[in-house]
Specification:
Elements (H helix, E strand, L loop, with lengths): L1 H18 L5 E5 L3 E6 L2 E7 L18 E5 L21 E2 L5 E3 L2 E3 L9 E14 L2 E12 L7 E14 L5 E10 L6 E3 L8 E4 L9 E5 L12 E2 L1 E7 L6 E8 L8 E5 L12 E4 L7 E3 L5 E11 L4 H12 L1
Antiparallel strand pairs: 1-2, 2-3, 3-4, 5-13, 6-7, 6-12, 8-9, 9-10, 10-11, 11-21, 12-20, 13-19, 14-16, 15-18, 16-17, 17-21, 18-19
């Protein structure tokens, strides 16, 4: 009887470890942002203060309101900010590029043009419950060249929820709800960049040591401009398995789902540090944002060390949309 009870206890502990039970995510506010920790290690940081730019770089490239660093469960940094080829790239973020406001073009993506910017506004709420931690913030999409003075063109409520997953992995829910108070609304013009969720990967990843796979079986060679339910990015790291990665899931209620993507070709920027992917809901068609209406995009990231099979990725997506 004692042996039977011991076996049952060991089996239960193993099962709980596999599915992530007993693990808790904590959330801490710092002078510069908010830190999510799993197993007492920081795995995700949301930046609420403007990040200084490197010496000699235009101050216009400084911004707040982005995720960096995002780390794998073993602590491998998977994101990158302010790369020399694109100082306006910020880890995980999602500004819109070409927007039309009262006949004027406003660009919230290309910071160097100084037409627009997206910044952290204020904390709405934060909580820890059920082993997960959740952050809700207001982000302001600022029209810097408005006729009278700069104005908030789009208000965005961003929800970031982090919780343990199976096999030592963890998941991040990234939910963006946008709305405008402008009387004539805003047209988010169709363009190959903008909106959704973008990811600039670590500078260690390039053409020869990383891979991209989508739900439709496209790889980096064929995925750009295509639609997908999910996209997985995997690359070499110092984890004991040799690799780490992120699976990005698009919810089936999102605009243009399965969503079009912007994925850099393999020969972009000399092949090293050149991994960029984005779910881009306005890639093929414009999006009219009417005043006083709310529009929501839902994404989930599964962050892992080692590898993940396409079958596992599909199961994660099915669980997400349920």
């Amino acid at each position: 009887m004692i042996l039977k009870k011991t076996f049952c206890l060991l089996f239960l502990i193993a099962l709980m470890t596999k599915v992530g039970f007993g693990q808790k995510v904590s959330l801490t506010e710092t002078p510069t942002g908010f830190e999510f920790s799993l197993r007492n290690e920081i795995v995700l940081t949301y930046q609420s203060t403007k990040k200084p730019v490197p010496e000699g770089v235009n101050e216009a490239f400084s911004k707040s309101g982005f995720i960096h660093p995002l780390k794998s469960p073993s602590g491998q940094i998977l994101t990158r900010i302010q790369p020399q080829d694109h100082y306006h790239h910020y880890g995980i973020w999602g500004p819109y590029t070409r927007a039309t406001i009262s006949g004027r073009e406003v660009d919230f993506w290309n910071l160097g043009d100084e037409k627009g910017r997206v910044d952290f506004g204020y904390l709405i709420s934060k909580k820890q419950a059920g082993g997960a931690a959740e952050l809700n913030v207001r982000q302001n999409h600022i029209d810097l060249k408005a006729p009278d003075s700069e104005q908030i063109a789009i208000k965005e409520d961003l929800r970031i929820k982090v919780k343990p997953s199976d096999q030592g992995r963890y998941m991040v829910d990234y939910t963006s709800t946008i709305f405008t108070d402008l009387e004539d609304g805003i047209l988010l013009d169709d363009y190959r960049y903008g909106g959704g969720i973008g990811f600039r990967a670590t500078e260690a990843w390039g053409t020869n040591n990383s891979s991209i796979l989508t739900s439709e079986g496209d790889t980096r060679k064929t995925a750009d401009g295509k639609n997908a339910k999910w996209v997985m990015v995997t690359g070499e790291t110092a984890d004991k398995s040799g690799t780490s990665g992120i699976l990005f899931l698009s919810h089936n209620t999102n605009k243009s789902h399965p969503e079009p993507m912007r994925i850099w070709p393999e020969d972009n920027y000399d092949g090293i540090g050149n991994v960029f992917i984005e779910f881009c809901p306005i890639r093929h068609e414009s999006w009219q944002i009417l005043p006083n209406q709310r529009y929501t995009l839902k994404y989930r990231m599964i962050v892992f060390d080692g590898t993940m099979s396409p079958e596992e990725a599909e199961t994660y997506w099915e669980n997400f949309v349920k």
